[in-house]
Amino acid sequence: MSTHRVYKNIKALRELNRFSMADMAESLNISPSSYFQLEKGNSKATIERLEEIAQVLGVSLSHLIGSEESMEEAKRITDLEMELEEKKRIIEILHSSLEVVTKYANDMIMEENKRLKKEGMDDLKVPKLPKIPKI
């Protein structure tokens, strides 16, 4: 993994966490200008400093430096998140369809109950379907 890539990862993770450079400098107990130089790759970070940065950003050191294993794990997580979003979308569509079918069925039941009442057969009244709970 190139050194340049490590510093790009630091910046990307910092922005993802919505930390400013000043926030990072404060968390690491260094000056903002020192942090700026570090993130730009103009000064080299020790392994200890990289471990501190990883801790502040809430990731493992291997994730921060972009090891192949952590990249695969990140891709797997992204794939699972996409799959989850797709399943949520399908559930919303099915729920919406079920609401439409239930409303239609209840409208038909109301019409049938009116007919039964008109013909004096109230004792054969059909109960409505329950409302579909919100998801």
Automatic annotation (TrEMBL):
Keyword Thylakoid: no
UniProt KW keywords: DNA-binding
DNA-binding listed as a keyword: yes
Matches recorded under SMART domains: HTH_XRE (SM00530)
InterPro entries referenced in this protein's UniProt entry, alphabetically: Cro/C1-type_HTH, Lambda_DNA-bd_dom_sf, TransReg_Diox_bact_type
Record CDD domains: HTH_XRE
Gene3D superfamilies, per the entry: lambda repressor-like DNA-binding domains
Residue ranges of domain HTH cro/C1-type in the record: 10-64
PANTHER family for the chain: HTH-TYPE TRANSCRIPTIONAL REGULATOR, METHYLPHOSPHONATE SYNTHASE
Protein name: HTH cro/C1-type domain-containing protein
Organism from which the protein derives: Emticicia aquatica
Lineage: Bacteria, Pseudomonadati, Bacteroidota, Cytophagia, Cytophagales
